[in-house]
Amino acid sequence: MILLLQYTLIFASVLVLVALGGCFSEHSGVINIGLEGIMVMGALGGALMMKFLPDSTPAFLMILLVVLAAILLGMIYSLLLAVAAINFKADQTLVGTAMNLLGTAAATVFVKAMNTAESVDNVSSTIQYINAKKAFLVNIVGFEFNWFMLMALIALVVSYVVLYKTRFGLRLMACGEHPQAADSVGINVYKMRYAGVLISGLLGGLGGIVYITAGVSEWKFENGVAGFGFLALAVMIFGQWKPTRIALAALLFGFFRALGNVYTGFAFLKAMNLPSSVYNMLPYIISLIVLAFTSKKSRAPKAEGIPYDKGQR
Amino acid sequence: MKEQKRSLLRNNAVQSLMASLLCILIGLLVGYVVLLLINPAGASEAIVTIVKNFMTYSRRNAQLKYLGSTLVKTAPLLMCSLSVLFAYKVGLFNIGAAGQYVVGAGASLYCALAWNMPWYVCLLAAIVAGAALGAVSGLLKAYCNVNEVISCIMLNWISLYMVNTLLTQVKEETSPYTLTLSSTNPGALLPALPSFCMSWFNNNQYVTIAIPLSVLVAVAIWVLLEKTKLGYELKATGCNKFAAKYCGMRENKNLILTMAIAGALAGMGAAMLFLTGFEQWQCTQSSVPGMGFNGIAAAFLGGLNPLGSILSSYFIQHITNGGAYVDKTMYSAQISDFISALIIYLCGFVLFFKFALNNWLNRWDEKKAAKAAESEEKGGKAE
């Protein structure tokens, strides 16, 4: 039971972080389908940092550096979307999809090259970080508390405050609703959209490193992040682009995802004798059903996906 | 002479071709730089290997045989790219081609291995399965307003796990792969090409009617989109759902139909690969096969034209196959995936490229006109 709670919380943290990233980007008016690729890049940054830092690094420093690496790589990678979508008015869905494919391919090529450089026989795309991962965990009577859970909570609170209580956040949202109007009162729409996409890169990258450290201590980069970025997008839509609702949605989805990891621990679930693939499918099925019922009255930012053209009226 | 050249540059098809070639060139260039960064020693050789693909074999027979193998995988890729393209023409982004491909593979293999059906039934089953999955996304989009990209991705994963479970019933006992068609049910193998054609590919047994069939489908899709009432209606719905409704078109029906056709295409593509016996399905697969995603690359690289995508599908498959030949002690085969992903990304800039080119041409024309006017004026004064 505690295990289920623990997994639910950690997966919910991933979803909250990434969904909030998508939320910032979409409120600024840019659809970020590329979150999946951003997560892979963040994961790669964090995993490399964990691999190369000596095990004796103090826990605090370890956490700080790993998080910084993940965030940095995620933000740099998100620039690909920002440049294409904001400056070159590219189709945002297309660019996002390309980023997802590119992220996985680039990470695989890089990790494989690194592994083969170390030893010629090693052609896997796996990075291990068994010892380094311990820095993130604090054992509280059987419950493995992960510092990332706290980070997700902080990110949630900060996002709420930034979006609704600061000048920056309100301006950002204006750019996603009616960029022409925002421009007419002196807001630089391009800058705001850059900010939105970069913040989504930051949160997406962080979400990536959280995801690959949740429950496992090595990661095969060939698999990318297995559709988790899209699950986060579903969470965001279900959460109606509002941070508090996103948090609730993330808990629900996190629960179903966690069930796949720990269902063997429950006698009655085990007795039903369902194949494990049913549990693997569960989060996706639930999200489809939930989306089918909630999308009808969806309140997406009005100008999302439309490149901003100053001359347009 | 110059007049002609200018009008050629303004031609939309020429611009698309230029843009695609530019994307390929930049893609390969960046790929080369990445290879250089990984290991400068073999980079040039590796990129040449990727571009050469089957030409790396020195014997002509081997070349022909592996040309055949590349074509065998081009057929499903072409179908996937048609699927993406068809939906995109109607304003939908069918990222679910991957999932529709997966259910197509599942349906055709299950019919072939569990029920011992002949090949045409298996092919039909794949088409129906793909169409059904596509229609689900269409239904969700039409009646529940669910973004097709999200629903397609969810369905991709759901169908992967379902097909894995289904095909586990017909897998080899000792391996995670499905039974081979040639040993279990040879009747399910697609018929080979007539024998004079087979000699073109050094009698590569996997070369089947799938290859000409896929080209035929490409032509059919072009006709459907450009020359029929249905194609016009579908495109109108894609441009503006409400305007289409106002004109008396049934917009929801059109949406669902589009996704069903797109799904059918991708499902058929899967049958075209798996019913040749070229590959077996791996029942422990943990990621959705890349064929559907490469279809996106091929569709956009082909300038969103069914006939263009015949060429671009071949190119994408050519470099993907070529990636398998790079020196594995230095590089990985995924460098090809990297290059095709890069090409998709660059395709995002095509619209801007055309816009900039036209702008430049306009300015050039203006300048020339101004100059001509000036010289005329001067000429007039001199007289």
Q: Key features?
A:
heterodimer, A: 313 residues, mainly alpha, ABC transporter involved in vitamin B12 uptake, BtuC, two-stranded antiparallel ribbon, two-stranded antiparallel sheet, B: 383 residues, 74% helix, globular
Describe the structure.
The complex is a heterodimer of chains A (313) and B (383). Chain A has 313 residues and is mainly alpha-helical. Chain A is built from 13 helices and four strands. Chain A has helices at 2-28, 35-52, 59-87, 92-118, 130-133, 147-165, 167-177, 179-184, 189-213, 228-238, 243-262, 267-272, 276-294; strands at residues 126-128, 137-140, 143-146, 218-220. In chain A, the strands form two sheets. Chain A has a two-stranded antiparallel sheet with strand order 1-4. In chain A, strands 2-3 form a two-stranded antiparallel sheet. The longest helix of chain A is centred in the first third of the chain and has 29 residues, at 59-87. In chain A, 54% of the residues are buried. Chain B contains 17 helices and no strands. Chain B has helices at residues 2-10, 12-38, 43-52, 60-89, 97-113, 119-144, 148-168, 181-184, 195-198, 210-227, 229-239, 241-246, 251-274, 291-301, 306-323, 335-347, 350-382. In chain B, 51% of the residues are buried. Chains A and B meet through helix 4, helix 10 and helix 13 of A and helix 7, helix 14 and helix 16 of B.
CATH architecture level-2 label of chain A: Orthogonal Bundle
Mean pLDDT of chain A: 86
Could you name the CATH class of the domain at 63-305 in chain B?
Mainly Alpha
Give the tally of structural domains of chain A.
Answer: 1
**Treating each run of at least 4 consecutive H or I residues as one helix, how many helices of chain A?**
13
* Number of helical regions of chain B: 17
Helix/strand/pairing class of chain A, anyone? Answer: mainly alpha
Q: What is the average per-residue confidence, as pLDDT of chain B, rounded to a whole number?
A: 86
Task: Assign a percent range to the helix content of chain A.
Answer: over 70%
The two chains with the largest interface, and their residue counts, are:
A-B, 51 and 48 residues
The stretches of 5 or more residues of chain B where confidence is low (pLDDT under 50) are none
Global geometry of chain A: globular
Q: What's the order of the H and E elements of chain A?
A: HHHHEHEEHHHHEHHHH
- Please report the first level of CATH classification, the CATH class of chain A: Mainly Alpha
> Could you tell me how far the N terminus lies from the C terminus of chain A, measured between alpha carbons in angstroms?
57 Å
Order of helices and strands of chain B: HHHHHHHHHHHHHHHHH
Largest sheet of chain A: 2 strands, antiparallel
Beta-sheet strand percentage of chain A? under 5%
